[in-house]
Amino acid sequence: MTTATPTREGPRVQAAPAPAGQLRRVTRWWPAAALAALLAAPYSSLPLPGLLDGPIGSAGSLQLLALCLVFGALATGYDLLLGRTGLLSFGHALYFAAGSYATDVIMIEAGLPFAAAAVLGLLFGIALAALLGSVSLRVSGIAFSMVTLAFAQAGSILVERDPGGVTGGEEGRAVPADRLPASLVGIEHTVNLYWIALAYLVVTVAVVHWAVRSPTGRVWEGIKENERRVEVLGLRPYGFKLTAFVLAGALAAVGGIVHLLLTGGATPQTTTSDFTLSLLVMVVLGGSGSRWGPLIGGVLYTWADHRLGDLAGSGSVAGLPSVLRVPLSQPLFLLGTLFVVVVYVLPGGVARLPQRLRAAARKRS
After folding, report:
1. What is the Cβ-side half-sphere exposure of residue 178, based on CA atoms within 13 angstroms?
2. pTM of this prediction?
3. Is the pLDDT of residue 328 over 60?
4. Counting Cβ atoms within 10 Å, is residue 307 exposed (0-12), middle (13-18) or buried (19+)?
């Protein structure tokens, strides 16, 4: 009789999680981490040399961060047209300027307090978007883009001509300090403006996320993919496109009101088609049609616009040979070079970077 000797198995080694899975878990929580960092920014004295001029919680740094948040939110709202519905508008800056100028003019000319003027400015921006959108959307494709560009150019010319002295012409129009709440005036209250900009960003992201996930958002996706198929299904694309146009215009008008507070007035630069082209660059830079791409692109573009402008005028660039000094002293040259590099290195925008990293991690594993 023989007895079998049981074999002792060695300790089981648990397989390490795949690098792609680890990366996915890390990237899943970055929006919450970013929001926590933004909430803590006003209370931080941490210096970021090269990124900001002073500590994070200083007035200058909070001003720049607030502008980044505003344009990140504005690009997110603009992507409702470009990335979600497939509408290339060259006149989106008009509704941003409408909210800013309407609020400014109502405060000064009608003597209303800021809160009432802001509500009326928002209503004006919505009405303007509904009116011009109803006309622009009668055509599609490049014709739509040209019509929106024509409306934007007309608005820019109207502001520069300064009819009745209400727009300030090329100088813009500043808001008298006594027309604004005391808590929003002065360097010492920059933190309050920062909170308003952050609230605008959060509201815009929430509204866009809700709209995209709604039944209307699914129709927008169908219109972008194949508008004729949506018509075959018995739906009328015109109404859905107009809804996206008005919603994006309303979000832009709110952004114009917040920008009015940050800059202390309405500026004609926000009425130009160049401003809309900047929005287009922001969206493409971050990743059109993605959830976080336009926001990231807007923040990066605004930060680079300010920081590269400082670099172009710095003494280190002035001391270079002329062959380098001339191009590097132009902020637009630096921005254009950065944009071309990102487009070639990261096709699909910065938002596609985690996907590319996960694909590389899977290939290695």
Report:
1. 2
2. 0.86
3. yes
4. middle
